[in-house]
Write a structure and sequence with these properties.
By secondary structure, the chain is mostly loops. It is 15% helix and 10% strand.
Length: 191
């Protein structure tokens, strides 16, 4: 591996005549790019593709994702949206966002451009998983769709306890008509 010097480097630069090899985990440290689409081509720091867009960040420009300052020009670690040319971000930040949002929701954080931004980021070695956004896969919001299911009366009269509820009758659970965050059995409320 031309980055770490260890053996077992299985990735070789795609450029004809270049014999630089590296490990996938060493790619970022060595400024290498692996394109995670099509032919899955990889490039060393010398032959990697560069953004063609003509833009330079204004003074004190910050990354739209982490809000830390970006470099004073495009580089391996400082990238720009090819569509709006105003969204600047660090390679590591946009990679983390890509992993989080997945293929279906990946777009420029500033102008929301999808196609040009997506194609440029793929070409520049940003890996995009083909899955739903992480917030869609987890059950982070599952509690929002749950219905309140216990009697909150100061003294619950139900023989089955606060957790028991029936579809109709005296042990039917009536929820607050304003918030539905509290409820009582019909009999516990003397209704």
């Amino acid at each position: 591996c031309f980055v770490c010097g260890e053996s077992g480097a299985a990735i070789t630069c795609r450029e004809m005549g270049c014999d630089r090899s590296f490990h996938l985990p060493c790619a970022v440290e060595g400024g290498c790019i692996t394109q995670f689409f099509g032919l899955y081509r990889s490039f060393c720091w010398e032959h990697r593709p560069e953004q063609a867009v003509e833009a330079a960040p204004e003074e004190n420009t910050t990354c739209l994702i982490c809000l830390d300052p970006v470099g004073d020009r495009k580089s391996y670690s400082t990238m720009v949206c090819p569509a709006c040319k105003h969204a600047w971000f660090h390679r590591g930040c946009i990679q983390k966002q890509a992993i989080h949002v997945g293929f279906s929701c990946f777009c420029c954080p500033h102008c929301q451009n999808e196609y040009r931004f997506l194609m440029e980021m793929l070409t520049m070695g940003i890996r995009l998983p083909r899955r739903l956004p992480s917030w869609e896969n987890s059950h982070a919001y599952a509690a929002l769709s749950e219905r309140h299911s216990r009697c909150d009366a100061s003294e619950c009269l139900c023989p089955g306890g606060r957790e028991q509820a029936e579809e109709e009758g005296p042990w039917h659970l009536l929820l607050c008509c304003s918030c539905a965050a509290e409820g009582t059995h019909r009999r516990c409320s003397c209704l």
